[in-house]
Amino acid sequence: MKSKKILSFLFVSLVISLSSCGVNSNKLYIGTLPKKVSFNVGEEFTSEGLTVYDVNNKVQIKDYSLSFEEGEILNEVGNFTVEVKKSKFESYSYDITVSKYHEMNIASYPEKSKFKQGEYFSISGLRLIDEEGNNITNYEVSKQVGNSLNEPGTFDIFLSKTGYVTASYKIEVLPINSMAISNLPHVTSYEVGDTFSSEGIKVIDTNYQTQITDYNISLKDGTTLRNKGTIKVLVNKEGYPETSFNITVSESSKHPSPIENKTLNIYYINDTHGSFVRDISTGSSKFPEAGMAYIGDYLKKEKAKDPKNTLILSGGDMFQGGVESNFTDGAIMVDAMNEIGFDAMVCGNHEFDWKPEILAERESEMNFPLLSCNIFKRNSTVRPSFLKPYTIIEKDGYKVGIIGAAKKDLGDSVLKSISSQFDFPSPGTYVAKYADELRLSYQCDVVLLVAHDGGTTSELSNTLASDYSSLTSISSLSGSRYVDAMFFAHDHYKKQFVENDVPVIESACNGEYIGEISLSLDGRSGFYTVSDHSISGLSTYAANYCTNGDEYILSLPTSEPYATQIGDPNRVLYDFDEDYTEEDFAYLTCQILYWYVDENKSLFGGENIYFSDVNKGMIRCSVKAGEFTIRDLVKVCPFQNEIAIQYSSSKNVNRVMGHQSIVSYVIKEPPYQTTYVYGASVSYVVEKYNTLQTDYHYYGKTIYDAYLTYFKEN
Questions:
Q1: Residue-wise pLDDT tens digits, 424-482
Q2: Which DSSP letter does residue 148 get?
Q3: What angle do CA 261, 267, 270 make, to 5 degrees?
Q4: 243: which residues sit within 8 A by CB, 6+ positions away?
């Protein structure tokens, strides 16, 4: 589409010329503008509703022509002038705007995707975001919320809003079936310590009066009943409304045979971020790092004191951030964790920094399970093969169930090309479901929650967020508390408090702290229940406690294949004359990126670039004056972002410069163009903030290529 903007001075000159020649010039004016003056790229031009009049005679004119054709495809973004013309009349004009469609992404799917026939349609839990992660509201839904779903089948639900690409998801409406318990189990009254039996129960399809045998029951036969009170037992089958019956459990009239009390000790670290070697120096934005060999030696010795009653857990984000881990794709960290004897690890967002295939490879090397109950393949409830919702560990005469969870929308902190393959719904309902399953189906004596989530109402709060506070209550199904202790991560804070008698802990980051929770297990009733707890989170840096290095872990960086992969991490790249704050170094990174692309145009499409930008979160700590090594570079910028050439309109260049999450560098003012100008950026920016550009392209180079070339040549 050619630009049809009118240059006003040419129009004025033409009028003056016609007047001086004595030509009779009639005038047009617009009575009503068209119904549509704002379009999106790809739409057809229409002037429907436009009325044009003769100024002198006040009569409507219909045989005018326009500089745009009806039905013409509008394929350029910008503001344009539509000229209204008629022979022997001065032309008139009005403006139209052509905008780019915004993306509409489903950040979290509704809580319900399966409905029973006759149920009311609901989108509760649905969250839509645009390219920048901003919430989208006031959108239209193709099916009326609150209406009864009367027709069984699978249906597409379309979500639309003017100026946005339509999004959709599927729902399933299950046909009406009816199930009832015609005969209750022979026994519905028990005493504490008895075992449950469903013998005698009969379940029928009430429509056909036929017996159903392939139902599921929430309380398995042989389950020891540990809590007095009324327990609701659920009976369910796919496609049928759930039904239930109650059993009552009273105080035991018998004298139970007590068993020996136990103490379960749980050691916990989170967000270690590849901090493999010891570095206990501190400074602005710098955490003391005890090192995996030193943490490992401490944990191994603690576990050796009472291996039957000790657990070692990780809250995730173990791999990304240190040269040893980054250059081995996390393999060296898994090797160390296997040697230490970790019992479980939860998947964090930075475990996804490399391809999912690499994460699957790391998981296959682990001697412990990788957990998360609420990470699913996109648009499904299918969990990726490298994740399990929970694990069960048999200790000294008792069972411990450990549930893993992820922060809702954790994918917002992952490269979009990777996170778009997965869904990260709210964890609460999944944790509750699996807690009941662990208590009832597997008779776990202790249930723990480990979540890659800050878990609290704010970063420094000692109050659990709603998704987690409900898990401190008593389940109506099991009669037990959902979880006995909670372990959090992700926001890098040290936390230790108790809510509703449930201990909560988080151990900062980078191996700065090692947390410990001890649970007292009371065996007087003949089985174990959690009766008390204590939090012994280390009150000072782990470096002060972890003073000896494990020989095997110390040897790993100089052993093959790691030695070849890592190379010399202490090789000096540069000698800085002054200190740099994180923001200063982010700006320097922009300059280096600009220099690298500008000096190597042939590697990046040959275009002149006018700006460069990176996200602020790409730089993780400050830089001190003096020698700057490869190890320092990885610590400062752990993310191997791919370099992208960003195609932006002049308007969007200004939006890049003003974005609060982006640092930018402009060497010369970009010329105004109707198409776009070029800039150098990184993968995280162009994928997450894609409204800031028209398009982008990768050329197979990373930000490390830019750093290393710059430091070598300058």
A1: 999 999 999 999 999 988 889 999 999 999 999 988 889 999 989 999 999 988 888 99
A2: B
A3: 150
A4: 179, 180, 181, 203, 234, 235, 236
Q: Sheet of 677-682: strands edge to edge? A: 662-666, 609-615, 677-682, 642-648, 695-702
Instruction: Give residue for tokens 């349609």.
Output: 121
3-state secondary structure of 187: coil
Q: Among residues 308, 227, 258, 265, which one has the least CA distance to residue 523? A: 258
Of 472, 415, 455, 292, the C-alpha closest to 698 is 415
| Residues whose CB is less than 8 angstroms from the CB of residue 294 and which lie 6 or more positions away in sequence, other chains included | 278, 542, 543, 546, 547, 548, 549, 550
Closest of 491, 549, 639, 620 to residue 276, by C-alpha: 549
Distances (CA, A) of 670 to 222, 334, 587, 654, 682: 75, 48, 19, 10, 19
Closest listed residue to residue 469, CA positions, set 455, 458, 459: 455
In this structure, what token pair is assigned to residue 171?
């729902």
- Residue 323, SS3 per DSSP: helix
Coil, strand or helix: which one is 531?
Answer: strand
The tens digit of pLDDT for each residue in 534-568 reads 887 665 568 788 889 999 999 999 999 999 999 99
Q: 3-state DSSP call for residue 576?
A: strand
Residue 116 has phi, psi (to 5 degrees) of -95, 145
Q: Looking at residues 44-57, what average pLDDT do you find? A: 91
Which residue, chain included where needed, has tokens 């710059």? 710
Kind of pairing between the strands at 344-346 and 370-371: parallel
**And the tokens for 505?**
């802990």
Query: Which residues lie closer than 8 Å to 476 by C-beta, 6 or more apart?
Result: 231, 232
3-class SS string, 621-667: CCECCEEEEHHHHHHHCCCCCEEEEEEECHHHHHHHHHCCCEEEEEC
pTM for the predicted model, two decimal places = 0.73
Prior bond to 561 cis, omega within 30?
Answer: yes
| Rounded-to-integer distance, Cα 268 and Cα 49, Å | 68
Instruction: Single out the residue of 563, 552, 550, 454 nearest to residue 509, CA to CA.
Output: 454
The pairing of beta strand 677-682 with beta strand 609-615? parallel
In the chain the first and final C-alpha atoms are separated, in Å, by 46
Q: How many CB atoms lie within 10 A of CB 42?
A: 11
Cα–Cα nearest to 311, from 420, 402, 176: 402
